[in-house]
Design brief:
homodimer, 178 residues, mainly alpha, DNA-binding
Chain lengths: 178, 178
DNA sequence: TATCGTTGTGTACACTCGTACACATGGGAT
DNA sequence: ATCCCATGTGTACGAGTGTACACAACGATA
């Protein structure tokens, strides 16, 4: 075997796990499926991640970072003059308009915290991350409400199949800002 | 075998499935676990519900009805004089204060629609049900926003472990009502 | 009463899963 | 140069899974 001492092995397993969850959902995640996706032997995944929960934590954390970067990209959000509600509504729209797989992936990992206490701190980190991006644009209390509202609106669109209405989202987010 | 021709067999299987999901989550749901919980042979569950998705649809639908009844109980909500935001915040608080198992159960079934298209119409029914209970108290557009906000607030409490703050919820719901 | 179709039962098959464990390998400390 | 130990590999086991299918029981219909 030539691929021994692979320093990025761990990271590649996490990436593989994210792809697997994106494709088949958490239900399709197993030591074997990640191993196959990452092209490493079974024993390698069980070595780096004793339990699947551990792997999920790492995956959610990595996804969080990707999303945070996505938020940071919106320089408009940083502009003190911009309409925060409109900008948030636009960001959500763009995000939801992308391929459903990616959106499902992030939400599924996030929602998995419901049953897995190990994921809850990471879910909290996600909320904090979004809150941070909005800090300074309005008071912290309102920020938390905005995050909750965005979650609720996205979920309604995803769970019921109702198409996302950007103008409607803008209006409702605006109502929250005093 | 004495228990043949059991007309309520189907219903008892659904109830058993709900108990199983409440205890072990959807991940713990299998034809065999429901069969054991309902005290019927394996073949009986596969006969009544060809796929697990079918069983989940039936379970979510039944849970929805239970929750709708819970909402209807609040006669205060029907009183045109009452503070809708305050009443909703109170209802959420009472619900979340109950045993976590029940809350987790309902949300897990609801959120399962993310990956299972078969559940989406039922999830939509749930939204409509809540909207119906609020109909007449404010305009339909606002109602949808209230539902989204309630979802978001509950999820934040459940996913991040942050304790639910009733007064905060009341304030934010109130902002949505024009 | 004879027949038929719905409902219920038991068992077996092929498959995937997590886990464990013995063994290989080679970088870095001594 | 030698040894240790973190890292990597291969395989096997028992438990649990969905599915299929032959058979049993009984209500209804003729």
């Amino acid at each position: 075997m030539t691929r021994r001492y692979d320093p990025e092995r761990r990271g590649r397993i996490i990436d593989a796990a994210i792809r697997v969850v994106g494709r088949s959902g958490i239900a399709g995640l197993s030591h074997r499926t990640v191993a196959a996706e990452a092209d490493v032997p079974l024993g390698s995944t069980t070595y780096h991640f004793t339990s699947l929960d551990e792997l999920l934590v790492a995956a959610l954390r990595q996804v969080n970072e990707t999303f945070a970067a996505y938020l940071q990209e919106s320089r408009t959000l940083a502009d003190p003059e911009c309409d925060v509600a409109a900008e948030l509504a636009r960001l959500m729209g763009d995000w939801l308009a992308g391929e459903r797989t990616g959106v499902e992936l992030e939400y599924e990992l996030y929602l998995a915290a419901l049953r897995r206490p190990a994921l809850r701190p990471v879910a909290a980190e996600w909320c904090d991350g979004v809150a941070e991006a909005l800090a300074g644009r309005t008071d912290p209390v309102t920020v938390r409400a905005l995050v909750a509202m965005m979650d609720g609106l996205c979920l309604q669109a995803l769970l019921t199949g109702t198409p996302y209405d950007e103008e409607y989202a803008r209006e409702m987010l605006a109502r929250l800002i005093p």
